Amino acid sequence: MAAPVPIGGEPLVRLTSDAFDGPGFVEATVLPGRGMMLLQARLRLPSGELCDGLAAPAPTEAAAALNGGPDDFAGNQSFSFGGAILAPFANRITGRAVAGAREIETTVDGRAVRLPRNWGGKRPGAAQYAMHGLILQSPVAWRQDEPRAVSGRLAAGDFGGHWPSATELGFEWRLAAGVLSLRVEARNVGHDRLPMALGWHPYFALPSGDRRQARLRVPARARTEVDNYDDVLPTGRLAPTAGSAFDFTAPGGRALAEQYLDDCFTDLVRQDGEAVVDILDPAAGLALSVASPTPQVKAFQVFAPPDHPFVVVEPQFNLADPYGDVWPAGFDTGMAHLEPGQALSYDVRVSASALGT
Q1: What percentage of the chain exceeds 70 in pLDDT?
Q2: I need a labelling partner for 14 at 20 to 30 A (CA). Which of 132, 171, 326, 331 fits?
Q3: Which residues contact 276 (CB under 8 A, 6 or more apart)?
Q4: How far is CA 216 from the centre of its chain?
Q5: Where are the alpha helices (DSSP H) in the chain?
Q6: What is the helix, strand, coil percentage profile of the chain, to 5?
Q7: Thinking of the domain 2-354, which architecture would CATH place it in?
Q8: CB atoms closer than 10 angstroms to residue 21
Q9: Residue 276 has pLDDT above 60, yes or no
Q10: Residue ranges per domain, the chain?
């Protein structure tokens, strides 16, 4: 069923899960007009109560924000709530500001490209850079053949002249037995080698509203050091998490308390081949698991400001600023590469359970 408020020239598409017992996602709302981002996902708690699983405004308010205006340059508002899909890169890419244009010039796989200069630090003179890919405001051709799923396809080409080669993207959102899953397929339909990184940017709401007691488990042996929490740019050094304030590896996680996070966790410890992050809300009796079996997922960016009852957990291929000169020569920053005709897939699923089960 489609909601009546169009966003990005396309209707809101609602998914409904089949029957299941216990906690889980009962419905979801997808925006094909904004790069197939997830606007909302309704969640059934262990108590049986229904709540919003994502921090996001109501559709009418979302439509007002996702309007292509000055605050929505390059689709920026798409990654301010809900869950935006990120391609052909996640996180930040730095470069030289282009005079007279809101762009940067940088080098991607040896080729000079211009990217939208759509984000940066807030302090005077802070770095400005490209952020979260090139499909944030792209309308996607979509179809829905059953209530539980919606698929889409985007002939992205060279992303408006901003990226090497040519890309075709396929998308599928699915709800099954209370589990929400996303698949993105990227295919190189051009003639040159295609650098590609994919990610997802979901704002998971804490149903209790009590951020201090919420717990996070991130099985990562390292995080990328950043210069500060305004620019949030990597220094090129990986810091071990063990024994530090960023050690969230314990089985039951670690309480967020008042700690601010905007950090890229890497060197992931996989469980049966999957990278899994857990968000625990003891006051609501709820555990959410964000899992990806995709081998190219190298990092989880976690954004969790103390004054907001949400946790953003972003499974992504690349580290921040993957082409930056801060990284040692030959260091793998997570960008995948596709030869002409090759494809790869990115899979993420989110499941809910009662704490202790």
Answers
A1: 99
A2: 132
A3: 219, 270, 289, 290, 291, 292
A4: 17
A5: 59-65
A6: 5, 50, 45
A7: Distorted Sandwich (2.70)
A8: 8
A9: yes
A10: 2-354
